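Good morning,

Attaching, inline, the backbone tokens for the sequence recovery test we're adding to the shared suite. The designed sequence is right after.
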């Protein structure tokens, strides 16, 4: 018996991008329940359709600042089971940190990542099923912007790579596959990272992402 397709609301004032995403998602097996060009329309559609996921541009009319993030916070408060993927053309994770700290069914990607169709679809599915995803370039930007006395300076290059993949929401097995190392080696790196950063060890992916976000937010 076929699974019911995940229902998605798309919110972006760029009509061409929005239509392109709608076409992409429909081909990937999602049901696009509605499209919005601003935050007010987005909230109305989400309240009406209760989708599995809302894909939201951070900057939307009227001010093109943080309207998408503010709408996402309302959605999370009213309908916490709705997954949220924030999209942005720029690295502006500070505005979204509170939402990302929710730890479940939330993600943040740069729009340039949408060109990698298979990765993008995988990201959406991961969020729908309760995961969290943060674009690795956002993590790298925050790492590079850390203050001089930074615990991250104690990490090896490989540990930094593992940390970035942890922030993407990948499991130890997923990290091992990505870096071409054994899962046992990944486990050793994770233990080392948690120890150096004074964070509790956990096998829960959500808490791993939460820990990374919380630490980066303390910069």
């Amino acid at each position: 018996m076929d699974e019911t397709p995940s229902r998605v609301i798309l919110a972006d004032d760029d009509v061409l991008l929005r239509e392109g995403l709608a076409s992409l998602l429909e081909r990937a097996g999602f049901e696009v329940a509605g499209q919005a060009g601003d935050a007010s329309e987005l909230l109305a559609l989400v309240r009406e359709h209760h989708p599995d996921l809302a894909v939201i541009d951070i900057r939307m009319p009227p001010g093109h600042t943080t309207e998408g993030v503010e709408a996402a916070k309302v959605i999370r408060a009213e309908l916490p089971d709705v997954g949220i993927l924030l999209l942005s053309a720029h690295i502006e994770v500070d505005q979204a940190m509170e939402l990302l700290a929710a730890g479940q069914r939330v993600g943040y990607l740069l729009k340039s990542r949408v060109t990698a169709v298979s990765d993008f679809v995988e990201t959406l599915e991961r969020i729908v099923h309760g995961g969290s995803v943060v674009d690795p370039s956002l993590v790298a930007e925050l790492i590079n912007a850390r203050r001089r006395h930074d615990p991250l300076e104690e990490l090896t290059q490989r540990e930094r790579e593992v940390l970035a993949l942890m922030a993407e929401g990948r499991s130890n097995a997923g990290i091992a596959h990505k870096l071409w190392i054994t899962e046992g080696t990944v486990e050793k790196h994770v233990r080392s990272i948690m120890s150096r950063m004074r964070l509790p060890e956990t096998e829960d992916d959500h808490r791993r992402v939460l820990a990374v976000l919380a630490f980066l937010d303390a910069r």
